[in-house]
Design goal:
The chain has about 220 residues and is an alpha/beta fold. It has one domain: 3-Layer(aba) Sandwich (Rossmann fold), CATH 3.40.50. The chain contains 10 helices and 7 strands. It has a 7-stranded mixed beta sheet with strand order 4-3-2-1-5-6-7. The chain is globular and about 45 Å long. It starts with a strand and ends with a strand.
Length: about 220
């Protein structure tokens, strides 16, 4: 198997879907605007610094999910896609995915953001194999907890290794924008830094990795 791994936020998207979801809830008047925005912004700054507690952040995000039923959340996510996400989907991301599909490669979306937020986005990009931080569901309701290992930093590599169990990979590509994904990029045969943050750009130059601009 030849494998292409795509990060989502600021890689395939021109935004961060997790932070954007929080802003969307504020703008729709669905959460306390002052508290929710302050918490959302703080966690996002922690992420950019590489200091995020992924369990604490996802439990903050999942609080809203515990308060509503599946049908309502599905409708709300569709509105989120329409208002926020689709305008931020990078055409160069679609092109890269198609290039790997044409070559017969297995394509996996891999993200630290929760499956609730990201699975519909990845599917719109044509990616159906998804590794994400998993929101626990019991009897059809979100519990507010993370199940399995959070798909963040080294945890992303651990989750990939779980997914790969029994599969033989002969060549791999990984696309990401963030220094948080250095472990994933170092693991791949071909690392591609997409609009990298400053620390990833420095590492990419040091390692001789390809740097691409997908911004719109």
């Amino acid at each position: 198997m030849k494998l292409a791994l795509f990060d989502l936020d600021h890689t395939l998207l021109n935004t961060d879907s997790d932070h954007s979801w929080g802003e969307f809830l504020v703008n729709e008047g669905l959460v306390d605007p002052v508290h929710h925005r302050a918490m959302n912004d703080k966690f996002y700054e922690d992420y950019k610094k590489g200091q995020l507690d992924p369990y604490a952040y996802n439990e903050f995000v999942f609080q809203f999910l515990t308060q509503h039923d599946h049908d309502y959340l599905t409708e709300l996510h569709q509105l989120f896609m329409q208002k926020v996400i689709r305008p931020q989907m990078r055409p160069e991301g679609f092109k890269a995915i198609q290039c790997h599909k044409d070559a017969g490669h297995e394509i996996v979306g891999i993200t630290a953001t929760s499956d609730f937020i990201t699975a519909p986005i990845f599917r719109e990009f044509g990616i159906t194999e998804i590794i994400a931080t998993n929101a626990e569901v019991v009897d059809g309701k979100y519990t507010g907890k993370v199940t399995n290992i959070a798909c963040y930093q080294q945890g992303k590599l651990t989750r990939l290794e779980q997914w790969l169990a029994g599969r033989d990979v002969t060549e791999s590509w990984a696309y990401s924008d963030s220094i948080n994904d250095r472990f994933l990029l170092e693991h791949a045969d071909h690392a591609i830094a997409v609009n990298p943050d400053d620390r990833l750009e420095a590492l990419a130059k040091e390692q001789g990795w390809e740097i691409q601009d997908w911004s719109i």
